[in-house]
């Protein structure tokens, strides 16, 4: 597989960096091709502005997604964005490697998503999203570290259910773009771990990556499960953490 | 009330800007004091780095949250961060005004959270989080625009349940810091709205803000609902979208 790892951590001695290095080593040993976008090292600009386009379709007022659509058609992105789009379209597996900050990705990585996951390329008009998204046929995985303990992200845990926490990334970003989602790899409570535990985390990640091509993807709903009212059709059982039947409505509606 | 509005949109003619202007006008009419952080206009830097601290406790390797803790104790933040922390601590109501990008805030606003919601100030050692968080006694609200229609964010809608989408912000950011959360204000499907519909959105927002001091906050769990295993104690009924009893376990465990 061609693998793209997008990595966001400000410190080269971090455990995130060790996870990145582990993934690079193992994926290459397994015969995969790997590209890396090291966002901090690149000085990646995360702020979406009018300056992201070499020409404007609507110069009087910026509608960012509409300019993205035109730029997708006319190769009208600035070079830093186009280079990332090219990497994204070359990959068969996307891995985001980051520390979980405020239940999400660091701002520099959110900006990579805002600017690179462009309208007209990864989603857009004509029903281009979810299983019809621009990145369909590819897979994606979150690999992140936490300050918290795993029991805090159980369904009855302090922080709430892990897949609810990650819904905006798994469903709202990966799924929306057509990516099939693999279970995340989580390096739990890193600052409370000793050397042996960190080594065990790295070994677990290495073992996971050796079998990465054969993993099952997370359950989702294809577009065809939804009616013209954008709601699950009668008879379709909700099968994700973000979908459920409204209160008082039985499965058959 | 003292209100802080943090605003992120790159276009001064945007509908988000109209919502901001509406809130400024109405809140002042109602006798509130309002401060605004217009992140794009300020050129706010969203990227957390070692440069955010005027001195370092652990100079050999950056552990961002540990440096935040020391900076909170010793006023060791750079001026741009300290100015925002000061505004945050002055406010009784925080409003985030933004376009929903990838089920979340734009990167420039995520970076405002990453850098300003500092360890030692808004959360930290000694159980300083949720109802014991550093911002307790204050309220917060998301006010955002969407490209999608409201039915897409119903519990059986294409994008998933609205409060699952927003969990990382409502619970993971506001709640974690001690802020009590008001229902969001949503300007639905703005690019498909005509002038009359946009006017109606603005009127609805104005009406909402006139009564903002008397609204009920969203349901949450205090820290005391969780046991030493970080899980909901026996007998506590889950009452948020992110908490539920594990499969096969009855409410009493």
From TrEMBL, chains A, B:
Q: Which GO terms describe its cellular component?
A: cytosol
Alphabetical list of Gene3D superfamilies matching this protein: 3.40.50.360
List, alphabetically, the Pfam families matched. Flavodoxin_2
Q: Which UniProt keywords apply?
A: Oxidoreductase
Q: Coiled coil where? A: none
Q: What GO molecular function terms would the record report?
A: NAD(P)H dehydrogenase (quinone) activity
Q: Which InterPro entries match?
A: Flavodoxin_fold, Flavoprotein-like_sf, NAD(P)H_dehydrogenase_qn
**SUPFAM superfamilies assigned:** Flavoproteins
Q: Which residues form the Flavodoxin-like fold domain?
A: 1-209
Task: Give the UniProt family note.
Answer: Belongs to the NAD(P)H dehydrogenase (quinone) family.
Protein name per its UniProtKB record: NAD(P)H quinone oxidoreductase
Species source reads Hydrogenophaga intermedia
Source lineage = Bacteria, Pseudomonadati, Pseudomonadota, Betaproteobacteria, Burkholderiales
